[in-house]
Amino acid sequence: MSAPRTIIVAGAGIGGLTTSLALAAKGFRVINLEKAERLEEAGAGLQLSPNASRVLIDLGLAGRLAQRAIVPDAVTVMSARTGRALVRLPLGDAAGARAGAPYWVIHRADLQAALEAQVNAHPSIDLRLGCRFEDFANDVHGVSIGHRCRAERRQDSALALIGADGIWSTVRGKLFPTAQPRFSGLIAWRGTVEAKALPQRAALAGVQLWMGPDAHLVVYPISGGRLVNLVAIVADDWRREGWSAPGDARDIQRRFAAAGWASAARLLIDSVENWKRWALFAMPDGGVWTAGSTALLGDAAHGMLPFAAQGAGMAIEDAAVLAKCLGESHGADASNAALPVAASLQRYAQARSARVARVQRLARQNGGIYHLKGPIALARDLAMQALGGERLLARQNWIYDWRA
Ligand SMILES: Cc1cc2nc3c(=O)[nH]c(=O)nc-3n(C[C@H](O)[C@H](O)[C@H](O)COP(=O)(O)OP(=O)(O)OC[C@H]3O[C@@H](n4cnc5c(N)ncnc54)[C@H](O)[C@@H]3O)c2cc1C
């Protein structure tokens, strides 16, 4: 049997690790199950906007992250047709000061390593690698959770179970078997290249977003500027589950050449030797995230297209709100101890659903706008230039200014 105030979190991705830290900060004991034997890099770079970096800083991660993250000077929107900059959205320290927290770009492995180190240093968190969540049943303590650690089947009781086990969530499969991710018809090619391998004219101090017909390309520095991260999004019907199928460099090079992309973009594409492909799946908007003493979080609840760069950001926000709601009713300093766990989890889902659905919609809209072609693409370019970088950036304030 587990100690009182124990919560089990299934999945130790960015969402699960942040949730463990946020719950532990409210006085809970946390068991964090992760099926992988080691937490390894899943993907390459990640943009973390102030709404997310603020939560991580509040959890005490500033020291571990600031030395590894880069503050990009701007997001520069580039035309795949002309190779020229269309508009520059200024970030840098000024944008961070306005929002009260930095805009970071970081290697996922660096973020995951910082979170794991913080989790391992916390006496109330038991991170169990190589342990796969299998099933659960309601019991007198809340939930009884069955999991398999290597060959051994184990059972633990907890106040609540949080499914942070990603877009192919087993917890969601048990709770809501008909809620399934849908294929978007798009795939992401991801790769990195040593910055010093690029010609001087390709040097990057910020994020570049290249827009072209039926495709876009995002490029930014990571790992203290040593590496450059590339994500190319193209239409395709290849739809394998998972995160790391290799891609043939010649295939992606040919696509961008055939579509007439400017040489500066193709130079970046051609510089990457090892590509990985991800088929982009998303959960439908407005799903149900909680039942009884169990709740979903991050991609398990609302896996979205990555075109607002907010999937991890929303998982991090979820973690802060979930810990706040559970902390108020069952934490070390509970102010509303009469509230059952199930009601606290419902408050969490209610607090999150409208905002997350708005971000899911924005991500889809962005994808449509980035991939326009023909005269309407020219009209888009002119409209963006007329609006200007400052005003385009201000349109994101509702995302960046969020607080738990
Ligand atoms: C191309 C691309 C670019 C992106 N760029 C950005 C960006 O710039 N900014 C941003 O904020 N977001 C971005 N995202 C989104 C972001 O990567 C995801 O939203 C985020 O990683 C989700 O985190 P998670 O913890 O919810 O899920 P995951 O990262 O999928 O973690 C789930 C964890 O659960 C584990 N697990 C699964 N099943 C079980 C089980 N049965 N038992 C135990 N453990 C289990 C898995 O091994 C995994 O470790 C991008 C996504 C893509 C595809």
UniProtKB/TrEMBL annotation:
Residues 7-360 form the FAD-binding domain. It holds the Pfam family FAD_binding_3. Its cofactor is FAD. Keywords: FAD, Flavoprotein, Monooxygenase, Oxidoreductase. GO terms for molecular function: FAD binding; monooxygenase activity. It comes from the Bacteria. SUPFAM superfamilies: FAD-linked reductases, C-terminal domain, FAD/NAD(P)-binding domain. PANTHER family: GERANYLGERANYL DIPHOSPHATE REDUCTASE, MONOOXYGENASE. This is Salicylate hydroxylase. It comes from Rhodopseudomonas pseudopalustris.
